[in-house]
Design goal:
- Keywords: Signal.
- With 179 residues, this protein is an alpha+beta fold.
- The protein is built from three helices and twelve strands.
- The longest helix has 13 residues, at 2-14.
- The radius of gyration is 16 Å and the shape is globular.
- The chain starts with a helix and ends with a strand.
- The structure holds 2-acetamido-2-deoxy-beta-D-glucopyranose.
- 2-acetamido-2-deoxy-beta-D-glucopyranose is lined by residues 154, 157-158, 161, 163.
Length: 179
Amino acid sequence: MKFFAIASGLIAAVSAIDIRLRSGGGCTGTYVACLGINPNTCCSNGGSAFIAIGAVAIPSNWRIELRTYQNGGCNTLRGIQGSGGATNMCISENDGIARLTGGGWNFASKKRNAAAEACESTGCTATAKPDILVLEDESTTFAIAEMEEPLLNVLLDYAVNGTQAADIPQVYEPYKIET
Ligand SMILES: *[C@@H]1O[C@H](CO)[C@@H](O)[C@H](O)[C@H]1NC(C)=O
């Protein structure tokens, strides 16, 4: 039993990085996040565009690269940044234009497999949809994985324009996660 607990703990640790797509420069503002996303997988909410993309919960002994994509989804690489041991990273558009439509990470290594190559050139083939949306207060959280797209798009509008938790319409109440 103990062995299995340890083994599954290790498996969990391998996919520990969260990717956050953020509405504010310098990784501020509201965000949607893919939790515990694997390498060479890109987090995207389709056509929704953001100003900054962050990676959090990076184990400090890992060397990764954070990637950003534009033009919808994860097809066109926009930027790459090495972690250099940081546990928290942010790539932000200097001109404040929301053009980032996807973000992902990979291990920084000269040896590249096909999935890593694709994420660098023709576009990531593995994509993930965000699990949660967090308001600007950094605490009010909604489960969005199962939310219908039109409903999600309106929630995102509210979140991006800085609507406070108390002013979010009742229809979103069932999606709220107590944190
Ligand atoms: C924020 O977005 C919602 C949804 O689109 C809209 O109803 C509301 O008027 C907006 N509020 C502000 C202050 O822009």
